[in-house]
Write a structure and sequence with these properties.
alpha+beta; binds adenosine-5'-triphosphate; single chain; about 45% helix; two-stranded antiparallel ribbon; binds L-homoserine; globular; 9 strands
């Protein structure tokens, strides 16, 4: 259950007249999201996704939706926000900010193979390049400053050995973020949450990335590390699957070649990406928000991934 604010066909019929999409024909709630109320809608012009934002405000939304518009205009495969007749892409519906975006074909790929990872690598590199001249800047709100706030909050829930891991990794990441190598890493707007359930495929053809609501400015390498840590692993152990890693890295590199600084920073970035999701999962697990309805994701998954990235040699960037 994940429609928090209901929208009837009647509600939609009046509201949709501000868009050039024809009459509303059908609306169906989508059950899988946990942040927003999402609906598939059908109008005389086709099928779309309607999202009512439950937490993000009118002031916060332009970064995400304008980024999607910017990318879609540059042929990056992402949902394109549909403007109303005044050009506005964020409009109130039933008391919430709402947007209509194009519907991506296909379904998410729960068991990606090398061919899927290569498609994702290519599109990720294209996305980074296309976002370079995006005019709105927002930091990654789940970056180092957020880790600094969150680590002390979750530490009391951990045993001593795990506390040591977290403290040691925080220090490692502080040093990394302050290093000359880090300062040389190319950066810009990134997705920052490109897990396998945030991309659609028709067979082996990628049809697009979605769920941009953790996007922000960070290093491109961090974004790639987040993506590799989910798409290219054996899920039960967290171990990297070398053919899938190689397929993703090769495809990315073919579009946007890695810099020498990135080659040196790869291992630290894989660790940073593991730490980011370990922390957010620990926080959601031990400090669930009052109205949270769904079971939180397992934090130990990213604890395992972090331990592996620290102790095992990781495949280099070529
Ligand atoms: N543009 C789109 N095209 C096709 N399907 C979409 C699109 N946007 C969302 N969906 C579908 O809606 C579901 C929920 O969307 P999404 O993951 O963005 O939800 P959310 O509540 O915003 O975020 P979260 O995944 O963090 O819970 C997706 O799993 C997907 O099936
Ligand atoms: N991708 C995140 C969930 C938030 O989108 C996780 O797996 O922890």
């Amino acid at each position: 259950m994940a429609v928090f604010t209901p929208v009837s066909l009647d509600d939609l019929s009046g509201w949709i007249s501000q868009f050039s999409l024809g009459k509303a024909l059908a609306i169906k709630g989508i059950s899988s999201g946990i942040e927003n109320s999402n609906f598939f809608i059908t109008t005389e012009s086709g099928e779309y996704v309607l999202t009512l934002f439950e937490k993000l405000s009118f002031e916060q939304l332009p970064f995400y939706l304008e980024l999607m518009r910017h990318l879609a205009q540059r042929d990056v495969l992402v949902p394109a926000p549909i403007p109303n007749k005044n050009g506005s892409i964020i409009n109130a519906l039933n008391g919430k900010p709402a947007a209509i975006v194009t519907k991506l074909e296909g379904a998410y790929q729960p068991k990606p193979q090398s061919v899927h990872c290569a498609e994702v690598g290519t599109m990720l590199a294209r996305m980074h390049l296309a976002a370079k001249d995006f005019g709105i800047r927002q930091p990654n709100l789940r970056g180092l400053p957020w880790w600094r706030q969150t680590a002390p909050v979750v530490l009391p829930y951990l045993n001593e050995e795990t506390q040591n891991l977290l403290r040691t990794e925080m220090q490692f990441q502080e040093d990394f973020a302050a290093s000359d190598i880090y300062a040389q890493l190319p950066n810009g707007p990134v997705h920052a949450d490109l897990f396998r359930d945030n991309a659609m495929f028709v067979d082996t053809r990628l049809t697009g990335f979605f769920d941009f609501y953790f996007a922000g400015c960070d290093t491109w390498l961090f974004d790639l590390a987040v993506t590799v840590n989910d798409w290219c692993i054996d899920l039960p152990t967290g171990a990297l699957d070398l053919p899938r890693v190689q397929a993703m890295l090769d495809a990315y590199h073919a579009v946007r070649p890695f810099t020498p600084a990135e080659q040196q920073a790869w291992n630290a970035s894989l660790r940073a990406a593991a730490l980011r999701f370990w922390l957010s999962r620990l926080y959601d697990f031990y400090l669930p928000r009052a109205a949270e309805m769904l079971t939180p994701h397992d934090p130990t998954h990213f604890e395992r991934i972090l331990r592996l990235r620290v102790t095992h040699a990781n495949p280099p960037l070529n």
